[in-house]
Design goal:
It is a single chain. This protein has 374 residues and is of the alpha+beta class. The longest helix is centred in the C-terminal third of the chain and has 30 residues, at 236-265. It is built from 13 helices and 14 strands. Helices cover 53% and strands 12% of the residues. The protein folds into 2 domains: 10-60 and 239-368, no CATH class; 96-233, Alpha-Beta Plaits (2-Layer Sandwich), CATH 3.30.70.
């Protein structure tokens, strides 16, 4: 039986790369200078990095067409939210809000003295402005006025009793905590915590984010004797995630430096002919240029930059360095006395097929990985 040929794909690919290697050997300066200019041009896309950053946890960790988002769209279509007639019950998202939590541990917060200080804090929050925009310009409204906190409205009526969890058919359990009721009654005897909400319209997220960040700065400086003041906003989780990502950047920088130094030093030889330090240096540089070019191109195209891809340069460096070692190994297998063109052709012929296969499998793995299975 005739021998079965299994190189019908490998052979033409190897031949093609052999021709390419010879061309590179004849015109080395083209492949040194031209990539630098291309990388520099594409790297200009990092100018748009600040505008393209996408740090939303939902955007990064949930599938684009997941059932939950489809169901939310149904709710949005049939039960739309009206910022001019706001109701928390009709929210189909968490909303854009800030929350101030005042706790008086072990003591009753439902006193005139305590509420005088709470009203002062509430006034400080509502007096914050972003440029010419005041809180009244950003808040959701009901009946033409900003939606207020029910517990504050109740206190301002000078009522002597507060029922729990409903007071005059208004649900207040989300605004008052640590409650103790009078024996056998729904009337509140004492409470330890008050939570105030400040909801914003969702028509301008940029301004909203600026107001929420200013709220965080203001709330973090609030201090009242005998009270513990906490705060939370709709952007708090995203901010904490971003800070967590920023905190590990120095560690990644250290690993980059270690990987680069190891790659270069491992190619060091005492024999000047077999020494490949400069080859390793340019191999690492080419990986960096690949990161610069690819990320810059995607930013030019308007692709959002998620913090989760901040580790990608380390992966790309690992793949690039691995391919560099294959190229160096194949180069050292060539005949020393041959000219550069023939040695480059032989190197590309032997190494390029292996590199192509590993690159395709890596690309396939990266393509599959970011998409959660629902």
């Amino acid at each position: 039986m005739a021998r079965c040929k299994t190189d019908c794909v490998e052979k033409p690919i190897a031949r093609g790369f052999e021709i390419l290697g010879g061309f590179v050997g004849r015109h080395p300066w083209w492949f040194l200078i031209l990539p630098m200019f291309i990388s520099a041009g594409l790297g200009g896309g990092f100018y748009f990095l600040a505008d393209r950053e996408a740090n939303g946890i939902e955007e990064m960790f949930t599938p684009m067409n997941g059932p939950a988002k489809e169901e939310r769209q149904v709710v949005k279509e049939y039960f739309p939210q009206n910022d001019g007639d706001f109701s928390r019950l009709r929210l189909y998202t968490e909303g854009t809000f800030a929350s101030l939590i005042i706790v008086k541990p072990g003591a009753n917060i439902l006193t005139i003295t305590a509420f005088t200080e709470i009203l002062e804090m509430d006034s400080n929050v509502k007096s914050m402005t972003i440029g010419a925009l005041a809180f009244e310009d950003l808040c959701v409204k009901k009946g033409g006025v900003c939606v207020s906190n029910s517990i504050i409205d109740i206190i301002k009526t000078n009522t002597t009793t507060i029922d729990y969890p409903y007071h005059d058919k208004i649900f207040i359990a989300s605004e008052i905590g640590g409650v103790k009721l009078k024996s056998g009654l729904t009337e509140i005897d004492s409470a330890e915590a008050i939570r105030l909400f400040y909801f914003l319209k969702e028509d301008n997220q940029t301004i909203n984010t600026m107001w929420l960040q200013k709220f965080i700065e203001t709330a973090s400086k609030m201090t009242k004797e005998g009270m513990t003041i906490s705060y939370f906003t709709s952007i708090s989780r995203d901010d904490e995630f971003e800070k967590s990502s920023d905190s590990i950047i120095p560690l990644f920088s250290l690993t980059y430096a270690l990987a680069i130094n190891f790659s270069i030093i491992s190619c060091l030889r005492l024999d000047c002919v077999r020494n490949k330090v400069w080859v390793a240096t340019f191999g690492v540089l080419s990986s960096g240029m690949a990161v610069l070019s690819s990320f810059g191109l995607l930013l030019y195209c308007g692709m959002p930059f998620a913090m989760t891809v901040a580790t990608a340069p380390f992966l790309i460096l690992g793949i690039g360095v691995d391919d560099m070692f294959i190229m160096i190994s194949c180069w050292q297998q060539t005949q020393v006395h041959d000219n550069v063109e023939d040695r480059m052709a032989a190197t590309y012929k032997d190494a390029a097929v292996s590199i192509t296969i590993t690159t395709l499998t890596d690309a396939l793995a990266f393509y599959i990985g970011p998409y959660p299975v629902v």
